[in-house]
Structure to design on (206 residues):
């Protein structure tokens, strides 16, 4: 994994080391680390496209995390998040990993408890809520596109993560949502870029 190339090891004493995370980006004074990118890849319904390099994949995920943080910083005082808002983000994560128990067990990989997980997804939760309140974009996705994505993108990802894949029927709503989001991103990009322009952003991957 690309992440293995970007974790620093510092020798403290003979036979003793400590792992330091590297900063991937800064939005105003808010930091996004390489581990944050790894967590996003593991939890969120991100998929690597065919022919996309690992470095380009990380850069694309980081761009999304920067957008989540910018929207969060801009609108955190304007929206109140309810439990159902969290469930809308948690449900696809649980579907991706296979079950709630698997998600809870997977959190141990990052030394996280459930409150840590909820804190981590808060920016995406608010991002999704803001988009839902501000934009109403309808995109139609053919089932053949869902099948192609399931076979070509989802299954290889689950194998790489060592996870048991869900069935096509189980994954259809999640894949349809992902493809719809991808199609609508072009319509949202102008608004996101204008919003990000109001923040001091340092992207260290570029």
């Amino acid at each position: 994994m690309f992440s293995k190339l970007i974790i620093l090891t510092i020798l403290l004493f003979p036979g003793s080391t400590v792992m330091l995370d590297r900063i991937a980006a800064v939005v105003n004074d808010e930091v996004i680390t390489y581990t944050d990118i790894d967590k996003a890849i593991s939890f969120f319904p991100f998929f690597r496209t065919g022919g996309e390099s690992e470095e380009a994949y990380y850069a694309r995920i980081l761009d999304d995390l920067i957008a989540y943080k910018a929207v969060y910083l801009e609108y955190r005082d304007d929206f109140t998040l309810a439990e159902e808002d969290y469930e809308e983000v948690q449900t696809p994560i649980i579907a991706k990993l296979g079950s709630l128990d698997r998600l809870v067990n997977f959190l141990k990989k990052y030394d996280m408890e459930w409150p840590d997980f909820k804190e981590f997804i808060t920016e995406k939760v608010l991002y999704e809520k803001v988009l839902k309140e501000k934009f109403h974009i309808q995109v139609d996705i053919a089932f053949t596109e869902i099948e192609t994505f399931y076979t070509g993108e989802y299954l290889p990802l689950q194998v790489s993560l060592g996870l048991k894949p869900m069935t096509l029927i189980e994954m259809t709503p999640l894949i349809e949502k992902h493809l719809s989001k991808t199609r609508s991103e072009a319509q949202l990009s102008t608004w996101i870029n204008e919003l990000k322009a109001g923040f001091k952003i340092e992207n260290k991957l570029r």
About this structure: Residues 22 and 33 are 6 Å apart (CA to CA).
